[in-house]
Each structure stands twice: as C-alpha cells, then as structure tokens.
Amino acid sequence: MPSLPDMTTPQVAELARHQAEAHPAHPTVPQPDEGQEAFFETLLRIGDSALVLGHRVSEWCGHSPALEEDIALANVALDLIGQTQLWLGLAGEVEGQGRSADDLAYLRDAWDFRNLLICERPNGDFGHTLMRQFLFDAWHHELLKGLAASSDPRVAEIAAKAGKEVAYHLERSSDLVVRLGDGTEESHRRMQQALDALWPYAGEMFLGDDKDAQMAARGIAPDPASLRAGWDATLRHVLGEATLQIPASDFAHKGGKQGIHTEHLGYILAEMQFLQRAYPGASW
Amino acid sequence: MYAQLVKSEGMKAREEMTPQEIAFQERIDRGEKIEPKEWMPEGYRKTLVRQIGQHAHSEIVGQLPEGNWITRAPTLERKAILLAKVQDEAGHGLYLYSAAETLGVSRDELMELLHAGKMKYSSIFNYPTLTWADMGAVGWLVDGAAIMNQVPLQRTSYGPYSRAMIRICKEESFHQRQGYAVMMKLAQGTPAQKRMAQDALNRFWYPALMMFGPSDKDSVHSAQSMAWKIKINTNDELRQKFVDQTVPQAEYLGLTVPDPDLKWNEEKGGHDFSEPDWSEFFDVIAGNGPCNKDRLGARVKAWEDGAWFREGLMAHAEKAAARRAQAAE
C-alpha cells in the first residue's frame, strides 16, 4: 500500500486557507461581563450539579422498588430541576449575553459543564442511588445555608427557597440510609458497598480554586472547605446510626468543577439535549 | 378508560335475589354509597377488586411510556411538567390500591397478580412512545379518553372508589390540557414539528378508541356492572362522546384525524367514524402488543430488584420495634 507523502508546513498553511474560505469563522462563544466570570462559573457549578443529579434521579421514574419511592424520587428530581431553572437563569443574567437557563442546559457541551462528578455517577442499584443522594444532600444542605447569607440578594433568595426543599431531601435520604444500613445483612452490605464506591467522589465537594476564593472574598458564596465540618458531623451521626463504616481513604477524584468530567456526562447530555440538537431553533 | 373487559358476574334477576341482595340493590338505586365495612354481594366485591385493580395497574404501568421521555424532554419546564405528571400517575396508583385494600386485597397481592399476567392493565400502554409528540398525544388523547370514563365514575356506588375518582379526575383534566398544549406548540411549530404531531395522532387515534373496550354488542360483562353502578355508561356511548369532543380539537390544531370515513351526522347529532381494528385490540390484550413484554418486564424487574430494599425496611422496622419494647421494660 503506497504511503501518503509527508505533510509539509506550506501544505498545511494552504489547507488552512482553503478551509477558512469554505467555512467562515464560527460565531464567538459568549464571554461573561468583566469581573463576573467567577460568579458566572460558581452559578454554573451549583446549577449544573442540580441539573445533572436531577436527570439521574429522574431515570428511576416508574422503576423504583416501591410506589412511594417513585413518588418521592420524582419529587426530589422536580425540586432539583426547579432549582436548576433558578440557578442557570441567574447565571445567564450574570453572564449578560442573553443566554437563558434552557440555552445553558441544552446547548453547552460537556467541557462547559461545571457539575460535581458525583452527580453524573450512574444510578447503580437503589442503594447506590440513595447513598449518592445522601452524600450530596448533606453537602447541598450546608452549601445552601451558606448561600442564604450571600451578599448577593438574588443568590440569598434562591438559596432560601432551595434550602427548604433540600432540608427535606436530607431528612429523607438520611432516614433511608439508616434503615437500610441497619436492616438485613444484604441491605447493610449493599449500602456499605455504595458508600465505598462513592466515597472517592465526595471529596471534590470541598475543594476550592481561585474562583471559589474570589466568591468567598466578595461574600457571595461560602468557601467550599468551610462546609466540611457540618458535612462530617451529619455523616458521623447518620452513618453511625446506620452501622456503616466511613472509609479511611481521603483520595478525591476531581475536575468536574473545571469541566473535566467522567465519560458518563457525554451520554447524559446526548440524551438530554437530543431534541434541541436535532431540531435547532425550534420552540417546544 | 383504564379498565377494559372487566369480568363481572352474570346479571341476577330480582326474583333470584335474596332479601339482603334486594335491599343492597335498592340502596344503590337510591344513589347511596356503599362503604367498606358494609355488607355487599361477593360478586360486587370481586368485580370491584378486578376493576379497581386493573385501573391501579394501568396507572403504574402508565408511568412507563411517558417516563420514556423524561430524560429527553426538550426544555427544563417541559421536563418538570412531565415529571410532575408521571408522579401524579404513581399517586393515582396509590389511591386506587388503597381503595382496593378496603375490599380485603392487599397491594402486594394485586401486584403479584399483575406480574404473573393474571391481571390486566389498559391496552393503551402497550403502544410505544416514539417521538416527543407522543407526550402531547398521550396527554390529549389517552388522558382525554380516561377522563371520559372516569368523570361518570365519580358517581360510582362504592364510596372509596368514588372518592378516589374525584381526586384523580381533577389531576387528569390538568394532564389533558398539558398534553394539548404540547400538541399546540408542535402544530404551530416548524414543518418537522407539525409532521411529528400528525404522526403521533395517526398512531394514537385508534388505540385511544380501543380504550373504551369492545362494542356494546360484543361486551358481555356490562349489564350487572351497570346495575351495581360500577359502570355508568356503555362503551359505545363513551367512545362516541370522545370522538365528538376530540374531532374539533384536532381541527383547531390543523391536524387530520386518520379516518377517511369520519363525518358529522346531523341526524344523530354526532360523528360517524370507523371502528378500530378489533383483532389488533384482542392481540394486544392477549399479550401481543408492541410493548407488552417490555412494559410487564420493566415492572417485574423493578419489583424483583427492589426486594432487598423492601426487606431491609421491614427488618429495620422490626428491630426498631424490638428496641422500643426493650426500652419500655
């Protein structure tokens, strides 16, 4: 088989010129208003986490182990989708480029998503889903308490509303973790396995970067590390009562907040964004 | 109509009735409600268990065709509306299983009968939801047909069933409006969206007509149920009413009902329309619809995969009770 000739620099330049003529430059990606980038990113982190976890939870609809669970999980998913509308709506406002919550949810690719990795973990068995929810709720509850005291009144208002919902989510997931941890041998084993499998995805919730530092300095959002003590206390209490062992490792997968995700997110988005992508510009 | 082909007892003539049965029938004729602990003929109880059970099963299996689009809903608002709707279906299932429990049959027993294929659910849920427009068509046509049946059932003779129907009807009429709103958006949208809407109407029209059950002349179970006010209208009456209500709604959307013989009949004050293909209906009822295996399979899987969860909760409740008893000693 004849090999292709080596590609030389002048040929590459020529190719690039042809390409540029054939395809005019893409419209530029909108940039947030000056000084608002960290704020925009922070709102995406919160809103995307709610969106992606809400999506995962909604996958259970009609398939959960009891009718009461179908109803309760739909409730949790509904709350998270409602919160997504508020957080991403505010993100679009802060960005100032005219993007709506739907534009942000349905027209960004994975690398522009800022959700925590734990939110995109597959559902696994029902115990896995509940443990993921508990670890998230315990953090979410602390986060919203902090955000309710935000220097930005819009943030404080959304956090106050979401906080009431999440207090209930945490009550429910804690209760089920206790009952299943201290249930049968099998339910105990499954809950411990879920905790062990999800543990490496919990640490990311408390890792801050320079954007988090800017937000904390402006009093808009709490420093992620400051949420750890409250979360630890909830875990000790609930997992203790559930007779489950908190894993010793402190290894944490990270990257979600910076847009480096697991392979799972691409599939979530392929499904979630299908109609908006297949019928661009249509109104639903 | 989530209860089709509900087996009932043969109609008893008045002279064959015991004095107790006559008194019971008279209460029903006077429009009194029968309450759980009161005496009732065994046939009345059995027919109600079948009908309410079938209705409850339809609600929970009915979560699946719409649940199929929750993760693909095109906007956050549509996703929330669809989630809330499917959640309502689960809630309806709960009220109805509770109503059935007042007749002495547990939810678990009914579920096991469903899973074993010994109890049915509505044929409509054995059809697939293939495009987003099906979320509109299901709300508009399927919930619309269900309401047609359920509104009169608010006056049914059995108290708990009647009260469940009153709550359910309020929510169903909301669902129908939401479904119609989805269709309206599509019908006024791009050519591709309009095509999607028409395609959904084409696929759901006849299955929706089948929801009312076979024609009165072939419906063998109606007379006794109607005397007991478990069934209020005949299948054909309800089907006619549904067609008459739905045709102008389709016209408003600019969509065509897939029936070349559909026309207004001035004399009868209603539409003439084609009957659905009843051989298809009996195939679907017999388990050979496009989704029967998948729908029942999904329910069985949910039940079996969830066994450890339900057992875990039971075990914990027993432990907690034992601990409380010990503490009280």
Amount of helix of chain B: 55-70%
The coarse silhouette of chain A is globular
Question: Averaged pLDDT of chain A, please?
Answer: 94
What is the averaged pLDDT score of chain B? 94
Percentage of residues in helical conformation of chain A: 55-70%
Number of helices of chain B: 13
The named CATH superfamily of chain A: Ferritin, core subunit, four-helix bundle
Largest interface: A-B, 51 and 51 residues
Main sheet characteristics of chain A: none
Order of helices and strands of chain A: HHHHHHHHHHHH
Polypeptide structure, described:
The complex is a heterodimer of chains A (284) and B (329). Chain A has a single domain (34-278), classed as Ferritin, core subunit, four-helix bundle (Ferritin, Up-down Bundle), CATH 1.20.1260. Chain A has twelve helices and no strands. Chain A has 284 residues and is mostly helical. Chain B is mostly helical and 329 residues long. Chain B has helices spanning 19-29, 42-61, 63-67, 76-101, 107-115, 133-153, 159-187, 191-210, 222-227, 235-253, 278-288, 292-305, 307-328, and strands at residues 263-265, 270-272. In chain B, strands 1-2 form a two-stranded antiparallel sheet. The model of chain B has no long low-confidence stretch (mean pLDDT 94). At the A-B interface, helix 2, helix 3, helix 4, helix 7 and helix 8 of A face helix 3, helix 4, helix 7, helix 12 and helix 13 of B.
How are the secondary structure elements laid out?
The complex is a heterodimer of chains A (284) and B (329).
Chain A: H1 9-22, H2 37-58, H3 67-95, H4 101-106, H5 117-120, H6 126-147, H7 153-181, H8 185-198, H9 210-217, H10 228-241, H11 264-272, H12 274-278
Helix pairs in contact in A: 2-3, 2-9, 3-7, 6-7, 6-8, 6-10, 7-10
Chain B: H1 19-29, H2 42-61, H3 63-67, H4 76-101, H5 107-115, H6 133-153, H7 159-187, H8 191-210, H9 222-227, H10 235-253, E1 263-265, E2 270-272, H11 278-288, H12 292-305, H13 307-328
Antiparallel strand pairs in B: 1-2
